């Protein structure tokens, strides 16, 4: 398994940290399906909150409303629907605000303390009626066991829910951080149709929460690509209840670093889960670049490889073709040196070098195929120019990606 | 048909202009196939010559050698093999030069007057022996009827040859310009595994030939994308024999404009042919952007739409989803205004608006499907911000793309 953490993993998803309840149910956004499509998270207390959003200029209405609501660094609830992205509709803002109003009213909160998100098809008006009718049962079913139901209700083309909860220590006090995420197609941060809701009971100021979130997203979610399409609705939000009762983290230092470490591990896990569950994917691909001149070069090269349709298709076919990897490095817009590049493929079945100093090597085709038939593949690229490194996460390109996306609106 | 020219079309491919002969045959670069894989073009006289090449930092050895050879603005022959790109091999340069030497020797030319190109798999050494053995028969079969044989021999995953010859007038004198091109996968100029060999009998200086080529490639080949991968081997070369005996074009003016018009039409045709024959493609897609603030915006937006895997997959599925088009516009890196964008789909079956001022419209699904089931689709995008426009060319994303690229090296 590519992902590894030293931290203890807990059950419960987003409800693992102290002070959070969640729920998820089917309210009927789309016809002909019983899939759960409405999720809620509620904190017992007002939380410090932070968010990171898509940089696509076409921002979904929910993104705009959530950005407004989180401007004060505080929130207490999340309402999220799947099945319709409420994006590129004339009445989008109005409906996103209505979702906040309905939620706030049912919970006795101010609408500005509600985070709203929507994911699904773009350009079709959001049906508000089923949501309005679903709020009361959703509130009714809030519980500390509701994490998985919520994680399922936010899914669209995901095949599995993505959740994780970790325990860590701050100033000797146990804290917990957890998250649920969805994302399958239209994945290419900055950001991607990633929706990610994170909870923690750590006590931390809104400003530092925001700083930590931006920092950790940079090397995780922002390094994920399923299909190169950056969505209109990406949202990652983090609420901190403070109920772990640690001394509030107010500045950088050991406590802040411990928090960032836990947040990073959590986001790394969710990133690999999202990448590996890309639409139609059969494999998680990780491009691990080392030897770059600087971090920017490492990231651009890693992303270029992971985004290449030809590399992705080759991985689907278990074809150890270094040429496509080299080609992707060459158009990454970085001053690489073709003559110092090494490429290896690795998986649980072994590791093999296919290119040394920019030249293709002869290798055992059977051994290479065995390596590439695994479910998690590492593409190692050593640029031979320095010490910087970066990883990017993606998946193979398969017939099913085409099938899923050839007829998505039905 | 999207492509239209007022110029007269001629038979003969690259041999239509005065002073050119060509040939193509199977010499055996790859085992288990009888596909023609070696092509030659020979001019009766030394020609003014110009070239445009890939900007991928991983440049194939043939690209480097041809660049050197064309530095003096003169050439007289082309030798091109398919089946192996002679790229990312330690002995690449040596072999590319050897191909020039063998060709020059057989034709009584200087090696520096030979243009060399290779296309095919990367990272496997080029077998020189079959090429060496193929040169004599290739020279022997040079003829003015050899254009099609040459156009076939340069193909890799192309399903059809791409050739065109046009007649135009310069200072009242009839001239001809022609080209043969190949390109299917790994297509994303700057440039793409496009190989394009152009011939003309127009008399024009090397400097103006170079200027015209760069200018015309900008809005044609450099606006083509099949899969977003920019290849290592792109080469477009143009040889001018001068045998039309027009007054040599030595400066800008009416004659130069007439030449550029003909060259542009030719490249536009070849571009749409390459785009429409993308690996696995069933449709040619043209994204036609209007209303941009400037040309750069128009081009970036058009390319973004044409490169989006989700747009491409939707076109394969005949799904009139404006959301993906809008999403692609939003991440193009241009300051578009989400509220002034219109999107229409058009084909021979009609035209339909699916988005007005950034909002999805209700539309007749059956009518939309009928439009999208055609073989050439225009995606009209009006950005509503100015007067600049640009077209980009691509194709749909299909199961066959994945199939072809899942096992390319076999």
Q: What's the helix and strand layout?
A:
The structure is a homodimer.
Chain A: E1 8-10, E2 20-25, E3 38-53, H1 61-69, E4 74-84, H2 92-107, E5 114-121, H3 128-140, H4 147-153, E6 162-170, E7 173-182, E8 195-200, H5 206-218, E9 235-240, H6 254-276, E10 284-292, H7 295-307, H8 309-316, H9 322-330, E11 342-347, E12 350-356, E13 359-360, H10 365-372, E14 376-382, E15 388-395, H11 399-406
Helix pairs in contact in A: 1-2, 2-3, 5-6, 7-9
Provide an overview of this structure.
Two copies of one chain form a homodimer. Mean pLDDT of chain A is 91; it is low at 187-192. In chain A, strands 1, 2, 3, 4, 5, 6, 7, 8 and 9 form a nine-stranded mixed sheet that branches. Chain A has a six-stranded mixed sheet with strand order 13-12-11-14-10-15. The first copy, chain A, is built from eleven helices and 15 strands. In chain A, helix 2 runs parallel beside helix 3 (128-140), helix 5 (206-218) crosses helix 6 (254-276) and helix 7 crosses helix 9 (322-330). Chain A is of the alpha+beta class and 410 residues long. At the A-B interface, helix 8, helix 9, strand 13 and helix 11 of A face helix 8, helix 9, strand 13 and helix 11 of B.
């Amino acid at each position: 398994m590519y992902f590894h953490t030293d931290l203890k993993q807990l059950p419960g998803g987003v409800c693992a940290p102290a002070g959070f309840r969640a729920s998820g149910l089917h309210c009927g956004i789309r016809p002909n399906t019983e899939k759960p499509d409405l999720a809620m998270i509620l904190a017992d207390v007002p939380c410090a909150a932070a968010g990171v959003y898509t940089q696509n200029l076409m921002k979904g209405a929910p993104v705009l409303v959530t950005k407004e609501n989180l401007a004060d660094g505080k929130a207490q609830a999340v309402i999220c629907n799947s099945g319709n992205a409420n994006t590129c509709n004339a009445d989008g803002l109005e409906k996103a605000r209505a979702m906040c109003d309905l939620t706030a009213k049912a919970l006795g909160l101010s609408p500005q303390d509600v985070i709203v998100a929507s994911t699904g098809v773009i350009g079709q008006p959001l049906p508000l009626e089923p949501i309005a009718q679903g709020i009361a049962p959703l509130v009714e079913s809030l519980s500390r066991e509701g994490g998985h139901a919520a994680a399922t209700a936010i899914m669209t083309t995901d095949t599995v829910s993505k959740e994780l909860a970790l325990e860590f220590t701050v100033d000797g006090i146990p804290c917990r951080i957890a998250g649920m995420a969805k994302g399958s197609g239209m994945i290419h941060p900055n950001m991607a149709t990633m929706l990610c809701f994170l909870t923690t009971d750590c006590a931390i100021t809104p400003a530092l929460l925001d700083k930590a979130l931006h920092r950790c997203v940079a090397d995780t979610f922002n390094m994920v690509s399923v299909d190169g399409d950056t969505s209109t609705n990406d949202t990652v939000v983090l609420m901190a209840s403070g109920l772990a009762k640690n001394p509030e983290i107010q500045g950088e230092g050991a406590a802040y670093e411990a928090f960032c470490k836990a947040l990073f591990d959590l986001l790394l896990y969710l990133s690999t889960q999202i990448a590996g569950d890309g639409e139609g994917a059969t494999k998680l691909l990780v491009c691990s670049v080392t030897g770059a001149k600087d971090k920017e070069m490492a990231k651009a090269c890693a992303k270029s490889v992971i985004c290449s349709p030809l590399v992705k298709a080759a991985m689907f076919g278990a074809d150890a073709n270094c040429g496509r990897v080299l080609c992707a490095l060459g158009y990454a817009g970085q001053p690489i040196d073709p003559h110092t590049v090494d490429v290896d493929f690795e998986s649980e079945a072994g590791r093999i070098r296919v290119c040394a100093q920019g030249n293709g090597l002869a290798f055992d085709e059977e051994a290479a195929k065995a390596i590439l038939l695994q479910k998690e593949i590492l593409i190692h690229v050593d640029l031979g120019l320095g010490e910087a490194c970066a990883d990017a996460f993606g998946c193979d390109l398969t017939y099913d990606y085409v099938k899923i996306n050839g007829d998505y609106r039905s």
